[in-house]
What does this fold into?
Amino acid sequence: MSKKKKKIEQLSKNLEDLKEWLFEVDGGSNLTNVTSEEPTVTGAKKGGERSIALLDSDGLFSYVDETFADLFDYDDPEELLGKNWQSLYTSEKVKEFTRTILPELNERGSWKGEMAGESKDGSRIYHHLELAETTDGGIIWQVRRCLEKSTQKKLEAEMGKRIVKLREGVAKLQDSESKGDIYETTLNVTEKVLNPDICVLYLEEDCTLMVRGDGLGNDTVSLPNELYEGLATLTMKKDEVVRGEEFDEYSRLELSQQKYRSLVSAPVKTRGTLQVISTDQGYFSEEDVNLLQIMAHHVGERLARAEVEDDLRHKAIHDQLTGLYNRHYLKEVLTKEVDRAQRYGHTLSFLMIDINGFKEVNDAYSHSTGDRVLVRIGKLLQNNIREVDTVVRYGGDEFLILLPETGEGSEIVVQRLKMKMKDWNEKNDILDFPLTLAVGTSNFDPQEELSVDEKIAEADRRMYEDKRKSET
It folds into this structure.
């Protein structure tokens, strides 16, 4: 223990001697940035207006007067000796110290303002705080109790702003149209409300891991994905918020060199977790945890609704039997493809397809067997066109295929499909007689006067012509 620390401990009952030490040890002041006006360091007995304490360079209390201890509801000043100053404040206030107050103190050598501390029993202690640095890296704390009303209003105003940001973010989340938009909005809102170094959205069901934040720059060691996944697994298993300061318990990796010191992980229903991480010890407050839980809840609700919407959308535009697009979707895709064809001067080809001999399938076997045949032929058509092409179950055993920018090349597609149908007959285990395809084609040219409906009708007529040829 240094001589100065020993000296401080000997001054527990004499504040005038403490004042003398602050200004006279080693022939000069122990305060940094001293002006002609001396800082107030006047002590008072228990119950007085002003109290004082001294922190060493490690942030531990090395001197505490009785009034200071009494202000925070400690019976004896010795209870605070050797404790970290952070023990008197919530993590929210520690965050404020770390981000705003300490940098100003380091720059100017002093700071003053109203604060809300935490008593021994956890109740709020509102006080006016004055800080002054000493030349050996310590800090002098002067504290006096202040009216709670102004401080409370300030805290409520700050919290109110964050709640407004959260509400605005949740409203935007509800308007997100795709899952990708939901993911991006979630990270954006969480970053604005909680201001973490790293924000993580881990969704096990969607195999999604999105990590964002200032803490991922080149000047910072990034945390491995294994940590996020391990933390998510623990959170989902407990189905409750996981909050901690040490990372090793969440990963098999050696993380002792990591600079991150605080984390909170909230469950997003049973889907995954929303996580926030900070380099500061005790960075996240109870208010932070509550806000993160609220955000995670809304994310889970929005994802669940998105799945219902996707399911309803899928059912609305797909044929329930074959899984192909239905005629309802045909109207939607035609509008887009026709507009595109007109804009770029491209043709849009149509193939109208009917299954020759399908009536015999239902008559000789059953409608159930007929359904199986429709499903398999639907897959055959889908597997032998381009990704940009669209197969629609037009009705019964009829199919319509849209071929953008194909033109006369549609005849090649027809020959390929008929050949694939021939191969299918040789391998199929459903029927004991072959089926063939009747196909009619037409090309919509935006320069011509005929409409899309007329071109589809043309393909339909040609399909029946091909059907009659196969029957003769």
In short: The first helix runs from residue 3 to 9.
